Amino acid sequence: MTIENPLPDAFIDSQVKLALLEDIGQADLTANLIPIDAVSNATLITREDATICGMQWFERVFKQLDASISLSWKAQDGDRVKANTVICELHGPARALLTGERTAMNFLQTLSGTATLSSIYSDAVAGLPVKVLDTRKTLPGWRVAQKYAVKCGGCFNHRVGLYDGILIKENHIMAAGSISNAINQAKALSAGVPIEVEVENFSELEQALASGVDIIMLDNFGIDDLKQAVAINQGRAELEASGNITLDNIRRVAETGVDRISVGALTKDIKAIDLSLRFS
After folding, report:
1. Of 13, 219, 225, 274, catalytic
2. Distance between CA atoms of residues 57 and 144, nearest Å
3. Span 37-49, mean pLDDT?
4. Residue (of 51, 271, 242, 54) closest to 158 by Cα position
5. Distances in whole angstroms, Cα of residue 187 to Cα of each of 51, 167, 232, 263
6. Alpha helix ranges (H) inside the chain
7. C-alpha 74: how far from chain center
């Protein structure tokens, strides 16, 4: 599977450089026990079923340590692999391979964890005309990387940050005085940018629809209320279900007819994939 990585090489390199500095400090004291001219082969495997993400981070760790290290990938970002699958084979100076092992796997196991959970949520709504979206509940400094991982898992991105879309929530409405005031101000200041408003009841839904907003987030609506909101909407705005979405209920939520479902767990509740780098 080929999925475009939106991050420029320089950004990934900077993340890797910082991570290596954090781990190595002044020197890898243990790797220095190995003869400087020792050369090794290593095989990266996954110990569990996973959706792979993070190849470029993994590779750049070793390239920054020693450009002579060669990597042969057996899987690509977005690929679903079974437990005990060989993902990559490496060859090069033993010291550099040992020094980069943990940092490289930290990137790959974390991003693969996000991609794997996203693939599970994507599968849960298979066959239904709905998009499962991430949120801004991401690891600081990892936002765009995690959102790339979400796409590798088959889900979709909400706005990346505060700069590429307007989401009017409860506190914005309170500060603006009303839903209509907030929406009208948004239209005046940010022409062409998608405008979304969060509503908590049917009265607020009617106000949002009357204001001509693009997207309406239905916050913590129950299944029956979601169905009613879809009937009231009649296709005038995109409807997004949000709040307390789990694997147990996401398909029932999708079956109500909403267009989008946002799930903070995709990037917030991370379980790293169990990887192993075996030397020979």
Report:
1. 219
2. 13
3. 97
4. 242
5. 40, 12, 23, 27
6. 9-24, 55-65, 94-124, 143-152, 170-176, 179-189, 202-210, 223-233, 250-254, 265-268
7. 23
Residue 278 annotated to the active site = no
Q: Tell me what the pLDDT averaged over the chain comes to.
A: 94
Residue closest to 58 by CA, chosen among 72, 47, 37: 72
Q: From residue 120, give the alpha-carbon distance in Å to each of 85, 217, 251.
A: 19, 23, 12
Q: How far apart are CA 270 and CA 138, in angstroms?
A: 10
Instruction: Mark whether 95 is an active-site residue.
Output: no
Is 271 among the residues known to form the active site?
Answer: no
Residue-wise pLDDT for 50-104, tens only, equals: 999 999 999 999 999 999 999 999 999 999 999 999 999 999 999 999 999 999 9
Q: Residue 239: which H helix or E strand, with range?
A: strand 238-242
Looking up tokens 């991003």, which residue turns up? 111
> How many Cα atoms within 13 Å fall on the side-chain side of residue 162?
1
What's the pTM value of the predicted model, to 2 decimals? 0.94
DSSP 95-157: HHHHHHHHHHHHHHHHHHHHHHHHHHHHHHTTTSS-EEE--S---TT-HHHHHHHHHHTT-B-
Buried b (16+ CB within 10 A) or exposed e, 36-47: eeeebebbbbbe
The one catalytic residue in 59, 198, 240, 259 is 198
- Tokens read off for 269: 């509740």
Asked about 169 being catalytic, the answer comes back as yes
Set 17, 47, 102, 236: catalytic member? 102
